[in-house]
Amino acid sequence: MKIALLFPGYGSQYVGMGKELYDEYRIVQEYFEEASNCVNINFVKLCFASSDTEISKLANAYMSLFLIGSAVCALLKEHGIIPDVVAGYNNGETTSLFAAGCFSFPDGLYLLNKMCSFYQEALAQMDVEVVRVNGMTTELLERECRAVSTDEGKVFIAFYDSLSSHVVVGSRDKIGKLRDNIEYNKGTEVEYLTTDVGLHSELMNGVIDQFKIYLEKVDFKDLTIPMISGIDGVLVAQGAQVKERFIRHINEPLKFVSVVDALADYEMLIIATPAEKLGKILKKRYPEKTIVTITKKVDIEAFKEIVQSFDII
Prior knowledge:
By secondary structure, this protein is an alpha/beta fold. It has two domains: 3-122 and 203-309, Malonyl-Coenzyme A Acyl Carrier Protein, domain 2, CATH 3.40.366; 125-200, Alpha-Beta Plaits. The chain is built from 14 helices and ten strands. It has a four-stranded parallel sheet, with helices on both faces. Strands 4-5-3-6 form a four-stranded antiparallel sheet. A two-stranded antiparallel sheet has the order 7-8. Strand 9 (268-271), helix 13 (276-285) and strand 10 form a beta-alpha-beta unit. Helix 5 packs parallel to helix 6 and helix 7 packs antiparallel against helix 10 (205-215). The radius of gyration is 19 Å and the shape is globular. The N and C termini lie close together (11 Å).
């Protein structure tokens, strides 16, 4: 049986995530301690005793999800579970790279912290909005985006989550015009999202210009476990290739629909941290597959039983 390990991104964070694993496993506590020492944040307080507002702040959410996902990966390894492939949704791809041996845990925190800092600075200079569009085909939505875009303001599809679910980003007035143009379409729903989910378009070019300098300080090693790239669903493993795609991941649209397609050959899908939306996407596409979410000790025990029944360990 082939196993894929997936890591969710922004929007999956919540106060209390990882608490039961933290209480039960020393290795999880060690990851919390190391993360707190690396970036001078009390992650125990942030993850277990803050507020939805506090944990949803850009850097807090990105680094907390990275911490929890990394700790779950280490916990699975401690139980003898090594996946055949890793993948991540949005910023979850950084966690998948750590899980695949690309860089160290402190380096992952360092990269996320720097990227979030530059992203927040960029957002302060922009007048942009982000919407999720459900119920419209990719081809039709791309056409509508081109129709409202001008040299003065553009809109981009930043996330291709499925054939009929996309996230669109762009200038506030153009997003408003797009909404007006497509809401007449029967079955189409438009939902406003926070800009913290990421812009993943040429709007992020300035962030890359700043980020590249710090990126050079991190050694991107060849992966010990291949990763399904979020920008096109291609399997990657070489360090140089991964680094190049890590940069493109910032200012190119993310095609998670291609990642999901690439999971067809894997019988068991593990979601390393709580992720209701990610779970729904996977279950809708692959109702026949075994999908396990690791949130507490009982999940680990149940997962071990499943694995042992297939004689994987």
